Amino acid sequence: MNTVRIVVFAKAPVAGRVKTRLIPALGAAGAAQLAAHLLDRALQQALAAAVGPVELCMSPAPGAPEWAGIPLPAGIETSDQGEGDLGARMARAAQRAIARGEAVLLTGTDCPDLTAARLRVAAAQLAGHDAVLHRAEDGGYPLLGVRAFDATLFEDMPWSTATVADLTLARLAALGWTVWVGDTLRDIDEPADLFHDNAIAGFRAV
User: Fold this and answer.
1) What band does 2 get if pLDDT is binned at 50, 70 and 90?
2) CB atoms closer than 10 angstroms to residue 127
3) Is 202 inside a domain boundary?
4) Omega of the bond prior to 158 within 30 degrees of 0, cis?
5) Range of the domain at 70
6) 206 lies in some domain
7) In what order do the strands lie in the sheet with 76-80?
8) Beta strand 143-146 with 103-107: parallel, antiparallel or unpaired?
9) DSSP letters along 165-196, please?
């Protein structure tokens, strides 16, 4: 099996710029603290999965003032998300990994249910499938993994809508790729999500 790179996409956890839909429940500072908590959890789970390199794809770029004081675990590689919509940014990261001969799992930080165990299973399934995907309950996906690159998976996608996972699966089918679909998971996006199954255990806004 190719080495599997986990690429975690994240914005700098700056108050007023992240988790804005949670500001009514947590305040701007609390929402930023939650974003930092979820970022740390996502990176720790990716490292614990131990399937290959872990890369944090950052917005703004590594070294920007917004990242000052944000601790990152040892062993994390960093990269710049760059310009364009989410699809353009994900496409560049996937293409970089595949050009190095790696398979890639693309993830974010909004899904605490995306544990090290689930990442290991997804990586293992990618050895026997062309792509792997976990749906989100809101119709998006918290994880997409691929062994080859095709730009159609990322172009002209209505991001942040309930059709993203279905459209992605339809495009994978059109390519003739084999796909493994894992559990449907919950993102932390809305105030109601904060009280679901201890999804943010260990977080306390101050």
Assistant:
1) confident
2) 12
3) no
4) no
5) 4-188
6) no
7) 76-80, 54-59, 4-11, 103-107, 143-146, 131-134, 179-181
8) antiparallel
9) HHHHHHHHHHHT--EEE---B----SGGGGGS
Residue 53: give its domain's CATH number: 3.90.550.10
Q: What is the pLDDT of residues 52-66, one digit of tens each?
A: 999 999 999 999 999
Q: What is the pTM of this model?
A: 0.94
Provide the 10 A C-beta neighbour count for residue 189. 18
Mean pLDDT of 16-23: 92
Instruction: Tell me whether residue 161 is in a domain.
Output: yes
Q: How many residues does the chain have?
A: 206
Question: Stretch 22-41: mean pLDDT, rounded?
Answer: 94
Lookup: tokens for 102: 């790696």
127: phi > 0 → left, psi -120 to 50 → alpha, else beta; which?
A: alpha
In whole angstroms, what is the distance from residue 6 CA to residue 122 CA? 11
Number of domains in the chain: 1
**Residue 70 CB-half CA count within 13 A:** 26
pLDDT at 44 over 80: yes
84-106: pLDDT as tens digits: 999 999 999 999 999 999 999 99
